Each structure stands twice: as C-alpha cells, then as structure tokens.
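Annotators were shown the component list below and the corresponding predicted structure, then asked to write short factual statements about the assembly.
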Amino acid sequence: MEGKNLKILIVGLGVIGGSYAMALKAAGYNEVYGIDIDLETLEKAKALGIIKEGYSKGKDIIKDMDLIVISLYPRLVKDFILENREYFKAGSLITDVAGVKELFVQEILDILPEDVDFIFGHPMAGREKKGIDYASKEVFKDANYLITLTEKNKKENIELLEKIIYDLGFKNIKYVSPSYHDKMIGFTSQLPHAIAVALINSDEEGRDTGKFIGDSYRDLTRIANINEDLWSELFFENKENLLEAINNFLNELNKIKSALLNDDEKLLKELFIKSSRRREKL
Amino acid sequence: MEGKNLKILIVGLGVIGGSYAMALKAAGYNEVYGIDIDLETLEKAKALGIIKEGYSKGKDIIKDMDLIVISLYPRLVKDFILENREYFKAGSLITDVAGVKELFVQEILDILPEDVDFIFGHPMAGREKKGIDYASKEVFKDANYLITLTEKNKKENIELLEKIIYDLGFKNIKYVSPSYHDKMIGFTSQLPHAIAVALINSDEEGRDTGKFIGDSYRDLTRIANINEDLWSELFFENKENLLEAINNFLNELNKIKSALLNDDEKLLKELFIKSSRRREKL
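Structure shown to annotators:
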C-alpha cells in the first residue's frame, strides 16, 4: 500500500473532507473515493474531479480501501466505525480530523476492529463556513498538523500518514498525547472562538457598528461565524480545559481593567510590552 | 486652495503619516511636505519621493501650508499647535488622526488660533508596527474614516477634506459626535486590543504554542503586538468607555462559561447562532 495509487476514502466531503480530496488530487493521488449522505455533494465532488466515485454508504467501497480519512463531527466517528466494522480491509489505516482527543480516542479504541490501525490526527486548518463549496486546498498550506499516537500504531503507517500530510501542504507535524492536545487546543483554538463570539455578542443592538470598524474588529470576529453543532460538541468534549483557559484569560483581562481603574500606566505598559514580545516570538 | 497643487504638510511621518504621504503621492498631490523629529525618517521620505521637502521644525514651512495633517500621538498635538500658533496661514485647515476625541477636541479648541479651521478625523486603518518603514498606502484602501465636526468648521473645508479622504482610498466617511466616536471606538478598536493582549498574555510560560496554532489564534493575537506609548494614551483618554465595553464583553463571556458549567447545550448554540448572524451581517 504505497505511492499515488493508494486507495483513499474520504468520509464526509464537507469543508475539511472536501479540502482533503482537493489537496490529494493536486498532490497526484488518483485513487480517491468519497462517502457523503448528501447526494449533491457527491455529484459536485465528482464533477470537480476530486473523487473517482462517490457513495452514500460504506458497505460497497470500504473493503478495498487502504486509507480512510473520517472527516465527520467527532460524535459521528464512532457510529461510522460501528456501522462498518465488518467491512474494513485487514491491515488498513484509518485517521480522523477531530478537534478533541482525550475522551474521543478512548471511545474509538474501545470499538476498533483488531486488524485495523487508527492514527488520530488534527489538521490545524479550517474555514468558518461549512460544506464542499468552501473547501480549498489552500487552507492546508504551511499549516500545523497534530498527531496523537497510540501504542498499537504501526511504524509503516505512521510514515505513510506523515508523507501524505506533507503532500497535502502542511508544514509541521507535532506528536502529542491526547491530554496535552486537548489542553493546548482549549487555549489556541477553543478560547479564541469563545472570545470572538462574546466580542460580537457584546455589541449593543441596533448600532451601525460596521462604519466604525478597522481590521482589528474584523480579524477578532471572523470566527464568530461558527458552526453551532460542531463547536458545541468540541466545547463540551473539552469542557475542563476550555474553562481553565477562559479563567486564565479572565485573569489577564482583569489586570488590564485594574490598570485602568487605578490609573496605573506603568502596569498597562508592562502588559503591552509582554504581549508584544510574545507576539513577535510567535 | 484647490486641486492637486494644494500645499499639504504632514506632521509626523510615522506609520500613519507616512502612509498619508504615500497615498497623497499616488493620488497625484504634488505639493506635500513633511515634519519629523527624526532626520533619517525625513531622508527616507524624500528618497521615496513622497515629500517634496522635510523639516524638523514648523517655523519655516507652516506659513505657506493650506492643509496640515497632524499625525502625532494625541498628547503631542496640543503641544505642536501651541509651539506654532503664530505661524499658521490665515484660513488654512488642520486635521488630525487621533483615535480618541471627546477630551481631545475640547483641549484643541481651547488653544486654536481664531483664523484656522480644525476638522477632527480618525482613519480606521493602521498597522501593528511603527515607523515610516511600515507605512503603506494599501492600509487605507476601502477603509472607514470618522470625522468629528465642530460648529466652526467651514463647508468648503469639509468638502475639501472629504475629497482628499476619498482620493486616499477610503471607502466610507462617517460623521459622528466626539462622545459617540469614543463610545464606538472603545468597543470596536480598544476592546479588541485589550482582548488580544490578555489572550496572548494568558498563555503559560514555556509552552511550544506555535506548533498548536491555526488562523484563529494568529488572527486574534496579531494586534497584541502593540505600541505601548500610543495605546496606553488611547486607553486612558477613553477609560470610561473602554471599561464599559470590557464589562459588556465579560458579561457575554460569562454566559458561555455558564453554559459550559451547567451543560446547557441549548444556550451555547443560541450564543453561536447569534454571533454567526451578527458576523454575517457585518
């Protein structure tokens, strides 16, 4: 199972799954198939030439697949595996794109067939819109990819997935434990989404805010346009880490508030100097 | 005083003043002069061809100028006018770029010579870096411009400034009172800066955060690289409005926190739907 003839199945051709199919095509992989419950999505994907064939059920196609990329909401991944557990090809590899890992990994390992390898992955790329119409291989360019290994993962499969990830355009692959993944993602991804939502929701109703904005407000609220089903799942699956990140953030924002209330210009400048130094290092 | 031969003086050729000079040149204005305390900056501006001549003092040049754009930190604007009050040309126009207005406007009006018109302005565009090296006419393209009028402003001067603002590339001009300006800017500009600073400062020391970030964290922290002198001035000059905006934001973030703590998926989704609708409308 090597080279560009590897048989790859994308499950869920939404904005992320669709982007995988596009990036795989651009990288020269020519045996890419798709599963989606939406027939129009399958037709679009076929018309774009990014899948060879589309299916609404796994039964007919899964048995031939070397690699399956499950690009579904986290809660649906387990269902997909349970429904199709008798069809997976022995020795095949599965990976996912879920933005939470700790609870998720254990749930999947509990039901995974013995002869299938599952390497957990999280592409740190996405768009605020959903659906194949917003898919784009560009979002993967130079982005970060997180991989969570388990004891059962085979060396050759890890190498295969690494190669594909770089072929897709990603720049960095970082190996992390499920718990560290969730802790960091609570801070770098979920907290910014919570902040963006709170920022735009804190506007007073009926103001002509659009006339008063520059890039800063635009940048900070872009992700306030959020898929409520996916992100409520992600927030609740990582509740403890996210709450900790929110509390740390509140603590810092309260320092700024105190500096203002106490006319403490020295403290305010120190906070600005610290943030500038950290942002430049990033 | 009309047309592209209007004699224009930019006071302070930093990132904003430098951008004005560049955009004026691109728009065909060919009588643009500059004042800066930094000789190297004046040399650079002259070498770029964006000013005809540069000066370190106002005395020699101000008396010939039709329009003066003061692009200094707010606290320095008053000093500049006081130092040069005997040199301004009768009937000339001054404007500024200060990001706060209420206290500022009154201070300036108290010391302004009788025969000079001052129209207060705020280009909603900027960059996180300072200095002429980061100046760019592109930042003005399609941006918003806020103007704060006083009773004394002459109609022909308002029309002149409007024309120049559109020539610079701005898309919208909005006329606002000083108090509404400061209330809105506290929300759309200062609050996002406070949030960005608090977000990056809330990271735990020593983590390899760079490997865990996607566009969301990158976007939300861009403005955490902040000019501490300018922004502490802006924050303190608009303290009450900023504190109100911070409190409204905290209130919304606490709703998200409550939804998490109470496992209230319905509330969390409602907040996401509200923020998505608002962002799409923007």
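Statements collected:
1. Residues 215 and 221 of chain B are 10 Å apart (CA to CA).
2. The longest helix of chain B spans residues 178-201.
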